[in-house]
From TrEMBL:
<dbReference type="Pfam" id="PF08241">
    <property type="entry name" value="Methyltransf_11"/>
</dbReference>
<keyword id="KW-0808">Transferase</keyword>
<dbReference type="GO" id="GO:0032259">
    <property type="term" value="P:methylation"/>
</dbReference>
<keyword id="KW-0489">Methyltransferase</keyword>
<protein>
    <submittedName>
        <fullName>Class I SAM-dependent methyltransferase</fullName>
    </submittedName>
</protein>
<dbReference type="GO" id="GO:0008168">
    <property type="term" value="F:methyltransferase activity"/>
</dbReference>
<dbReference type="InterPro" id="IPR029063">
    <property type="entry name" value="SAM-dependent_MTases_sf"/>
</dbReference>
<dbReference type="InterPro" id="IPR013216">
    <property type="entry name" value="Methyltransf_11"/>
</dbReference>
<feature type="domain" description="Methyltransferase type 11">
    <location>
        <begin position="60"/>
        <end position="154"/>
    </location>
</feature>
Length: 274
């Protein structure tokens, strides 16, 4: 999401607002919010709740971006395979993952049609916020299924329709044009896509009210993502931090995530061979 926003906003940034003393870092707060939603659990070794990663795993991330998710997996000592259509992102991922304790790092620049990876390679397959971009989701998922071992776990996510519908009349027009978000995927459509690919769905969850609201304000603020310093964004971060710090902050977050979510996440499994 952040890399897409950067592409859409860095061409004509507005002058930054005057700095706010001791302002909250929106991205650090977003990381805290994500961890409360079940991401990056170092205690349990789960990249996301229900998706454990260990040194015994070969983890493939298709649409890896600069390797943020795989950094966690690398520090678990796993073998890593990353793939992305953007060569610059792969270069950044290679550098980032080279600094982890991963057993190995294999990198591919590819559109995923097909993936240059052998059948039954990975024990863990990750692809987050990609299906809304691709021309043929069924073909893309078929490739993900092909390269996973029998019994492999899959971590898949797409934008939640509640957030996408909010953005439609406010986001930059290119946000919903090729090669960006060319489809809005409902919960039922997402589950059907995954099931029809041959995977068994284990869980379906959603999170990210904080980011949904942040994005709405971001479009109105008209600032550069590399320096999103604007009163709207700063005040929103202050408000959300106060919510999370409140006695029932976790309960309030869960309730709001259930109403307007940035993303929906499916954990699935490739069936064992007969």
């Amino acid at each position: 999401m952040l890399s897409l926003l950067k592409k859409l906003t860095t061409a004509t940034p507005a002058p930054p607002a005057a700095p706010v003393a001791d302002k909250i870092n929106s991205f650090e707060l977003g990381l805290r919010d994500a961890m409360l939603s079940g991401w990056f659990n170092h205690a349990t070794g789960e990249l996301y709740k229900g998706f454990p990663v260990s040194a015994d795993d070969t983890v493939l991330d298709v649409g890896c971006g600069d390797g943020g998710n795989m950094q966690f997996c690398g520090n678990r000592g796993a073998r890593l395979i990353v793939a992305d259509i953007d060569a610059g992102k792969i270069d950044a991922a290679r550098q980032r993952l080279g600094e982890t304790t991963a057993q190995s790092v294999e990198c591919h620049v590819t559109d995923g049609n097909p993936l240059p990876i052998a059948d039954n390679t990975a024990t863990r397959v990750v692809s987050t916020e990609v299906l809304e971009h691709v021309d043929d989701p069924a073909q893309f998922l078929a490739e993900l299924v092909r390269v996973g071992q029998p019994g492999a776990l899959y971590l898949l996510s797409v934008p939640h329709p509640s957030s996408e519908e909010l953005q439609k009349d406010i986001a930059a027009p290119a946000y919903f044009e090729h090669p960006n978000h060319i489809r809005i995927i409902s919960e039922d459509q997402f589950k059907a896509m995954v099931s029809e690919s041959g995977l068994e769905i284990i869980s379906h969850s959603q999170y990210g009210f904080y980011w949904s609201m942040w994005m709405l304000l971001f479009w109105d603020a008209k600032v550069d993502l590399t320096n999103p310093d604007h009163p709207l964004l700063n005040h929103w971060a202050e408000t959300w931090q106060a919510v999370l710090n409140s006695p029932r902050g976790a309960q309030i977050k869960e309730a709001l995530d259930g109403v307007v979510a940035k993303s929906q996440v499916i954990i699935a499994r490739k069936p064992l061979a007969d």
